[in-house]
Backbone:
């Protein structure tokens, strides 16, 4: 049995909404797991069930070999960082960090020692006497993490902790969280709807949709080998291009072009997925793109346009290429890096 | 700096308002420093007279009442105890019941809340006979407990605390839970400190409410040692000895001024919290 084990965990709210469907998942000690999915997909509910803030309708949660289903949140030895930090507004930073320790009946000197260590680690030693209202967003974020670290819990839970920060700070804090987790080595679950956050932070990633884990794996596995249409569309930025097509006798006829010798026996209506970065310009390419807009990011250009059949399409090329608005590009798919999905079920077929 | 006409009008209105509040108090105070004959013959006074010390000394120490047992000082203490008890218990009970209503999700929470709210329509004066019956059956007439206990539930305060608790984000409770707080420690460590300005405000209102109670102590107390200030105001200087004594108007004014001191002290003392709460936004 691994460190944290979810077995057929289901959550049905009293009003009948089924938020999580029979989810099973194992997380190893020290692992950084990220739950990613669109809002309302059940990822936060799953996290809150681990924390004990939501009842488990069906299934079991085991942490460190102990069944947690009926254990009170305060007894689970988990720490959580909330989206809006949930710092205690009337306590200064020191007491925010010390509160959980005090409740555990730890003596004063030890508390002081632990709080000071955590504060040093997070570089908040200078603010220990301040109230949360006197801190900036990034500092509050650190205090919230300090409150989790100081208790030395079995598991850290992060519920979209970066979504209240501005873009620059978010990237900085993302790095800090990752570094910190590596330094402290605590098992962590991080919930986010931001796929970039998910990719950069995760040891393993669980892509969740409609209360079901669509795919579980390392970020690169999921990026390289999405198993469903949803995962393919969700992971990767800019989003994968999707084209309608038909698969018959190992030949895919999409809108205006054909791909032969496809490694699949599936026959019928399919969706072809091509990542914008898996395309390159070549003469007599498969795809002809009429450029409407070019976003120059410096390192890359994002080229947006339409295919012959007015379908929107995106192409990513190195930033040193000059692409004129209104021009026509001829594109080829790199090394057979395309994905074919059954149109009716969304399952990968190649 | 140019003064706008609107500002002048606003200031005039404000000054008039201040005068409306202050002048009666000043008249009472000034009148309390003359002797009764002067006031009876010349009317109320705007300037300080020479009887100040005498009148106040007399009011505080003279024994009054039918059996001449109770002094004004004793009545102030009684009222103070009664008001303090009512205010403290009202705030404590309301805060706790609001806590139960907001944080403990039981099926009847909403009907119970409305039931509590409906009691606003049934003030003590309406239910005074049943209340008296209960208190007297319990043998609590002529006691501080009897004065205080029937008045300690407050729908208004419960309502205000409930509304305030509802604005506290759920994450705070969840976070506290994960930090090992139980039901009691969440109340004491979080809700009480977060609502301290609210508590101060409620305490002031409830103190003044308790202090100005008239009908209840009048019915409740037959022993003069439990008389309260407002009762005294009616009783203590009205009796005329064998029909010949003059009304003791000056002493009455002194009594009124003295009776204002305890609530004013409470307001002054708690104002510190009020202002603190207004300056520091802690949410």
Residues:
């Amino acid at each position: 049995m691994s460190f944290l084990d979810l077995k057929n965990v289901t959550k049905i709210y009293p009003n009948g909404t089924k938020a999580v469907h029979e989810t099973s998942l194992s997380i190893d000690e020290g692992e950084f797991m990220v739950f990613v999915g669109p809002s309302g997909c059940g990822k936060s509910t799953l996290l809150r069930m681990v924390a004990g803030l939501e009842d488990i309708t069906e299934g079991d949660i085991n942490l460190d070999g102990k069944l947690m289903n009926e254990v009170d949140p305060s007894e689970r030895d988990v720490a959580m960082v909330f989206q809006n930090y949930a710092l205690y507004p009337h306590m200064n930073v020191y007491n925010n960090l010390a509160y959980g320790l005090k409740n555990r009946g730890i003596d004063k000197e030890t508390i002081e020692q632990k709080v000071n260590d955590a504060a040093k680690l997070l570089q908040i030693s200078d603010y220990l006497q301040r109230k949360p209202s006197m801190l900036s967003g990034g500092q509050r974020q650190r205090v919230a993490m300090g409150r989790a670290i100081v208790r030395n819990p079995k598991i850290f839970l992060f519920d979209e902790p970066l979504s209240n920060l501005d873009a620059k700070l978010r990237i900085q804090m993302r790095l800090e969280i990752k570094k910190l987790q590596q330094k402290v080595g605590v098992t962590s679950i991080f919930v986010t709807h931001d796929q970039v956050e998910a990719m950069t932070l995760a040891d393993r990633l669980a892509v969740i949709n409609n209360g079901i884990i669509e795919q579980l794996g390392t970020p690169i596995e999921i990026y390289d080998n999405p198993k469903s249409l949803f995962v393919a569309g969700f992971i990767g930025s800019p989003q994968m291009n999707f084209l309608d097509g038909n698969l018959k006798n190992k030949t895919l006829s999409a809108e205006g072009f054909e791909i032969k010798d496809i490694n699949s026996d599936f026959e019928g209506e399919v969706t072809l997925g091509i990542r914008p970065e898996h395309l390159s310009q070549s003469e007599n390419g498969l795809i002809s793109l009429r450029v409407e807009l070019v976003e120059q990011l410096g390192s890359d250009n994002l080229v947006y346009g339409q295919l012959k059949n007015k379908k929107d399409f995106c192409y990513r090329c190195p930033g040193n290429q000059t692409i004129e608005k209104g021009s026509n590009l001829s594109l080829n798919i790199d090394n057979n890096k395309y994905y074919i999905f059954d149109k009716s079920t969304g399952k990968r077929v190649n | 700096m140019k003064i706008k006409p609107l500002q002048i009008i606003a200031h005039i209105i404000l000054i008039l308002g201040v005068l409306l509040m202050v002048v009666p108090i000043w008249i009472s105070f000034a009148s309390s420093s003359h002797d009764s004959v002067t006031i009876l013959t010349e009317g109320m006074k705007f300037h300080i007279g020479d009887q100040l010390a005498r009148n106040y000394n007399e009011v505080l120490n003279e024994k009054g009442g039918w059996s001449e047992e109770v002094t004004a000082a004793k009545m102030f203490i009684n009222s103070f105890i009664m008001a303090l008890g009512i205010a403290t218990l009202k705030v404590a009970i309301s805060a706790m019941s609001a806590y139960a209503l907001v944080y403990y999700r039981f099926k009847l929470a909403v009907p119970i809340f409305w039931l509590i709210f409906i009691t606003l329509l049934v003030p003590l004066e309406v239910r005074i006979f049943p209340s008296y019956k209960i208190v007297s059956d319990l043998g609590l007439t002529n006691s501080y407990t009897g004065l205080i206990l029937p008045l300690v539930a407050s729908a208004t305060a419960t309502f205000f605390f409930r509304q305030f608790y509802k604005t506290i984000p759920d994450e705070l409770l969840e976070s506290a839970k994960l930090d090992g707080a139980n039901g009691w420690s969440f109340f004491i460590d979080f809700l009480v400190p977060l609502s301290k300005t609210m508590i101060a405000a409620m305490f002031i209102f409830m103190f003044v409410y308790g202090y100005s109670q008239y009908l209840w102590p009048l019915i409740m107390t037959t022993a003069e040692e439990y008389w309260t200030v407002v009762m005294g105001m009616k009783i203590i200087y009205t009796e005329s000895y064998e029909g010949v004594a003059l009304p003791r108007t000056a002493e009455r004014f002194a009594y009124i001024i003295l009776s204002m001191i305890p609530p004013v002290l409470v307001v002054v003392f708690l104002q510190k919290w009020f202002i603190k709460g207004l300056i520091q936004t802690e949410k």
In short: DSSP finds 14 helices and two strands in chain B. Chain B touches chain A through 21 residues (CB under 8 Å). The mean pLDDT of chain B is 85.
